[in-house]
């Protein structure tokens, strides 16, 4: 499609967009009494209007039923998480039995590493990407420290970062594959962010997973920026495990519950260690208070504690909206609106003295709902100007803004107006 940087053209695109109506499903902050242009769904998604009803339902059941809500609520609490299995399996490409919801993201990654990072004196290395999100880096370091007494390894020996080439912003697939082959028989685990939080690069998860398995390692994915954003086929790609937060693209609220995937090939493996708790115990016998742990078959067998239903209610509201729409429709709009934003940036670049360098890959298969933009010749003052004028975006040192045009609630008209505000912030 040939784009145009005009308000009329942007409105025309919105009129043709079948998802345009979903903007009315969300609550937008206001700046200067106007609805903001919201680019930070890659950090915290907006609140769906339907969320309050789901939370109120739990509150009312608690008030009216108290403890009996576990069994007699409209959505009984004791199996509340089971309502996520079908819709989430469609979002991440899994079998329903491979999905559970529990805890928060880094907690779940730690728990999954109990099962899938089992270092020995000869096979102990972890491959991750350079500039992984800091929480992942801290997790790797602490996991290695935890095992160091038994196998005598240090983080600097065990953690292998795949580097970007000099002068490049993104990691090449061939470099990932070469590093996996190089580490070879010393490799215990590959654990990478499916979408890099800083650059927005989407990794080839299928190819990397196959390479990790060929080397004899387990392969897992941190899908914080991928779930609800990228087409995933975790079961068919033979991924061992994955986890994701729900408060970014899936709009469940700040710090909310995490989803987990454990491939069915691991469900019947009694040799696979896990940290157990009573909510993962045989559901039909859970309240028998038996002494020996008998895990639920499937991913639910990795649960530990009674689930925070008040936290799960907003997540369920959003997941059911995703189920209405489907990932194919979301991805179709995602690609179109991200391309339109890219076009707007290039058009404004021609009209101002500063220059914009988009460090997110230009190949649509290597990016999703994020463009990370280096603002050459500009600094923090431009970010402040955008925020003061109703563009909610994200600043990363030294001079990068991250723009995430989430297809559920951003419009093509938003992209046009952002370009005009950006231009005025530079020219003015």
From TrEMBL:
Keyword Hydrolase among UniProt keywords: yes
Residues reported in the UniProt entry to bind pyridoxal 5'-phosphate: 105-106, 133-136, 222, 225, 247, 278, 306
InterPro entries: Kynureninase (IPR010111), PyrdxlP-dep_Trfase (IPR015424), PyrdxlP-dep_Trfase_major (IPR015421), PyrdxlP-dep_Trfase_small (IPR015422)
Residues with PTM N6-(pyridoxal phosphate)lysine: 248
Catalytic activity: 3-hydroxy-L-kynurenine + H2O = 3-hydroxyanthranilate + L-alanine + H(+); L-kynurenine + H2O = anthranilate + L-alanine + H(+)
UniProtKB keywords: Hydrolase, Pyridine nucleotide biosynthesis, Pyridoxal phosphate
Annotated pathway: Cofactor biosynthesis; NAD(+) biosynthesis; quinolinate from L-kynurenine: step 2/3; Amino-acid degradation; L-kynurenine degradation; L-alanine and anthranilate from L-kynurenine: step 1/1
GO molecular function, one term: kynureninase activity
Alphabetical list of SUPFAM superfamilies matching this protein: PLP-dependent transferases (SSF53383)
First-tier enzyme category under EC: hydrolase
E.C. no: 3.7.1.3
PANTHER family reported in the protein's UniProt record: KYNURENINASE (PTHR14084:SF0)
Subunit structure comment from the entry: Homodimer.
Function: Catalyzes the cleavage of L-kynurenine (L-Kyn) and L-3-hydroxykynurenine (L-3OHKyn) into anthranilic acid (AA) and 3-hydroxyanthranilic acid (3-OHAA), respectively.
Alphabetical list of NCBIfam families matching this protein: kynureninase
Protein name: Kynureninase
Species name: Flavobacterium gawalongense
